[in-house]
Amino acid sequence: MKKIRTVTGDVPVERMGVTLTHEHLLYTYPGGEYDHLSSYVLDEAVDKISSELKAGMDEYGYGTIVDMTPAEVGRNPELMKRVAESTGANIIAVSGFFPERMGIPYWFRRQTVEELTEFYYRDLMEGMVFSGTRTGIKAGAIKIATGQESVHPTPSPIGPNGRRIHLYEDRLIRAAARAQRKTRCCINTHTDPMDYSVTNPGLEQLEILEEEGADLSKVIIGHAFVQPRGVEQIEAILQRGATVQVDHIGIPWRFDGEEGLDESMAHLMQVLADKGYMDQMVITYDRWFFNPRGPSTEENPQLLNEAVGLGYIFDEFAPRLRRKGFTDADVHKMMVDNPKRLLSMDSL
Ligand SMILES: [Zn+2]
């Protein structure tokens, strides 16, 4: 029986329910863990996150959340575990880091591909380390990330390997592929939407993963619909066997085109579904439940991710998909069946 690895233990895929493949229970930026401005009381954070998540589970049937928070962006295994225990949700933590221009602490920049492979492997098999302490709480997937959003120059310049992927990112991607070969876990990625204007960052990631022998049928390329030059870029990713993630649904700051991001993504989805790629799409928000820095303001719209409610996909986006010919079974496939196949850790 196929299983996923959650922060509270291994769970048969039959118990996954509606799955969000890229969310954040708690989100800061590297360094936030030292700052008074983004400090928090664990009990209060657990309560706030749990009450919103539980309401979403009761009303919309969510069963599984992949918490894509990288290690240096406030990832807190204990918080995830307590939220899972208090809500009954399956929460999958990830091993991995932010893009190089914003993250990857110096400690890890000094490590070899072999050492980084071991890091991922131990996160998955022994449990994650938090502030130097072994938690015994295991990750259930690997995150890789490239690009440099909000860091100039944007889009990303060409890196030392001829790709717009930088030295340490390249190493971490190779290590992710090697750890995936041992664990047969899912790899979920962050691509910078801006980079689609100068290259196909999803394809660049897949090339490196493939060089190291990864199973691309267990790879999800994130943010692929936010700002592609055209449907061809997404299709090129799909042709390699990877899955593309429809995300930033309902989140306004990414896209200011005529029709809005939701409509442009729904249109791309329709074109891809017509071409037969329904098995290779997943749907999620990329919102966070709690940002210890405090609520967002209109002056800081990049922090508006949490303003989107957990019902938006079902109340607003699914009707839009239905108008384009998608059925409820199609939505079920993208939010239940496809995540089952992708997130099962096939060594379990
Ligand atoms: Zn994210």
Distance between the termini: 9 Å
Number of domains in the coordinates?
1
Bound molecules: zinc ion
Low-confidence stretches: none
Please tell me the CATH architecture by its name: Alpha-Beta Barrel
Q: Give the name of the CATH superfamily.
A: Metal-dependent hydrolases
User: What fraction, in percent, of the residue positions are helical?
Assistant: 25-40%
Helix count, DSSP H or I runs of 4 or more residues:
10
Largest sheet: 9 strands, parallel
Mean pLDDT: 93
Radius of gyration: 18 Å
Shape: globular
Strand elements, count: 13
Any idea of the CATH topology? TIM Barrel
- CATH class type: Alpha Beta
Strand content: 15-25%
Question: Which terms summarize this structure?
Answer:
nine-stranded parallel sheet; binds zinc ion; alpha/beta; 348 residues; globular; TIM Barrel
How would you describe this protein?
This protein is α/β, with parallel strands linked by helices and 348 residues long. It has one domain: Metal-dependent hydrolases (TIM Barrel, Alpha-Beta Barrel), CATH 3.20.20. It has ten helices and 13 strands. A nine-stranded parallel beta sheet has the order 12-11-10-9-8-5-4-3-13. The protein has a two-stranded antiparallel ribbon with strand order 1-2. Helix 4 packs across helix 5 (167-183) and helix 5 packs across helix 6. The radius of gyration is 18 Å and the shape is globular. The mean pLDDT is 93. Zinc ion (ZN) is lined by residues 22, 24, 68, 286.
